[in-house]
Amino acid sequence: xxxxxxxxxxxxxxxxxxxxxxxxxxxxxxxxxxxxxxxxxxxxxxxxxxxxxxxxxxxxxxxxxxxxxxxxxxxxxxxxxxxxxxxxxxxxxxxxxxxxxxxxxxxxxxxxxxxxxxxxxxxxxxxxxxxxxxxxxxxxxxxxxxxxxxxxxxxxxxxxxxxxxxxxxxxxxxxxxxxxxxxxxxxxxxxxxxxxxxxxxxxxxxxxxxxxxxxxxxxxxxxxxxxxxxxxxxxxxxxxxxxxxxx
Length: 247
Description:
Helix content is 32%, strand content 17%. The protein is α/β, with parallel strands linked by helices. The protein has a 6-stranded parallel sheet with strand order 3-2-1-7-8-9, with helices on both faces. Strands 5-4-6 form a 3-stranded antiparallel sheet. A hairpin with a 5-residue loop joins strand 4 (123-130) and strand 5. It is elongated.
């Protein structure tokens, strides 16, 4: 049987679906991923430091100008639109089948597509707070700042994006809720992730349900454990599923 048809059948039978995704979920929306051949970490562009260094907490504190220059030019994609993957998952949630999206992404495209229960392991570019007074600022307010390092107009504090940097811990409440969602699922869809970033990647080990499906264009260390492995672009596959299921 065709893999997509088989997966459509599993989705129809499932009562509690959870999606665990990474940067590959948004590549079809024009946002580069990190670790693929065409990803941000493989860029041939001359950078003053490696992306991993520039996206660390210590670097942010020591060199905020360099951090924000890189962050603004490489991490922000305000014009990106949800693709077939985001739209299909939102539809599944609307119909009561999908209970949670657990994502490593910070782009907010799941919410833009209509998903409600989105657990953002690595935070979001859409939430920003002054490091002095804690005031909230939107992505538009950060992007419209005339300064490279956005400052709070009230007290001059640096406005930091609520994005988990290297050397920072993940939000414990988000982690707990993600573990609960995955452990209660009967169908786990994993998509667009290299499964190399921890502790996020380790969350899939909490799955105790019936079927695991992996949708990824590049090989991962988890391929042999998946009940179905699909290597086509995830947005394309989700679009096919939407047609088959009438969603």
